[in-house]
Design a protein that fits this description.
homodimer; mainly alpha; Arc Repressor Mutant, subunit A; Tetracycline Repressor, domain 2; 2 domains; DNA-binding
Amino acid sequence: MPKLVDHEKKKKHIAEATWRVIVEQGMERVTVRNIAKEAGISLGSLRHYFSTQEELLSYSMNLVKDKVTARIMKIATQQLPLKEKALKMLLELVPTDKESMAEAEVWFTFIAYTRHKEQFDANQDGVFLGIQQLMQYLQQYNLLKTDIDLELETERLYAVIDGLALHAMLNPKRVNRDLAEKILVHHLEQICQV
Amino acid sequence: MPKLVDHEKKKKHIAEATWRVIVEQGMERVTVRNIAKEAGISLGSLRHYFSTQEELLSYSMNLVKDKVTARIMKIATQQLPLKEKALKMLLELVPTDKESMAEAEVWFTFIAYTRHKEQFDANQDGVFLGIQQLMQYLQQYNLLKTDIDLELETERLYAVIDGLALHAMLNPKRVNRDLAEKILVHHLEQICQV
DNA sequence: GTTTTATTAATACAACTGTATTATAAAATT
DNA sequence: AATTTTATAATACAGTTGTATTAATAAAAC
């Protein structure tokens, strides 16, 4: 019987090579040949795991989403004061180290790329739904100020998060972890009860 | 002597065709042939105005920047109460009609594209500098609350603006002009004196 | 009307693209 | 050790890319 290779492992290896190409060279250098080279395999070998480019891109993007989701969920299941937990979860969405910055870069690049491809179900609203849920949760536990407009504050927080994420990615020197944390702590203080 | 064509006008016409290709088809369809077709001219004709693709892209991007800057400056020179003026200027940065949404799309696309090309001087910090100046201005005229951290609030406002801009672009139905205005009014109320 | 030059169109070229096909190498079962 | 199944590699192909070259066309000044 055949030489047996861990399929899922190899696919992840190729997806990671795809990320590296995106981060280091940009989306227009994302070619099957470039990715195969970055992954250290031949073109035919890559095609053995992904028969079309669309399939490869879709897989690579979903893997980023899964990684981020896993990190958030890990925090969500921790035993922590709710406000502290909320802060940690939100901070996880602002890229402040090499790994999460690469993820953010891949994420934004894909968003821009898939906007004009209806074959991808962009699924760009995961973060919004998460923040919406978080805000509802905070309100249910009476942690929010009573006079706030929940829908408005959800959108505002969502804007702060994605804006910070974008700026941390584009200008990591100016928008570092310290600043992001200070801003989020301050913002949460403004919408939460004392 | 020769046939005389308004060079700058024609270049703008081509740049606008470039924008349309970006907005409707995405960056990976931005080819000299596609753009020439969209502009209704021949490939050779396009090359007569832009001898390289890089030149064309650089020009098209700068034109977007100029358009947005002009709109903001027009508001800046209006005779208006300062807080009202600030709101109008900030709202101008959140795309809520077809034209400004196209501009935002072009802008974000270019940012993603030029990140990996050092031959473009990305010049992405224009908005940040503008908001920084606006905040300093508000403080000088004693319109800001006295106990705020100026640097922090500048970064937060900048994040809200770019986050809103991104969301308005990606989900114009949910993040429309009404919502953007409500959020900005509310945000300014929180950092301004009563 | 001729001349001069800007502008346009057409074609060519090498490099690169995604995908397809074919052949070789390797490993597990018999 | 022989066989069978899978993994990898090599090569091919049609289409597209940016750029270059060439010839044709347009318009304005004399």
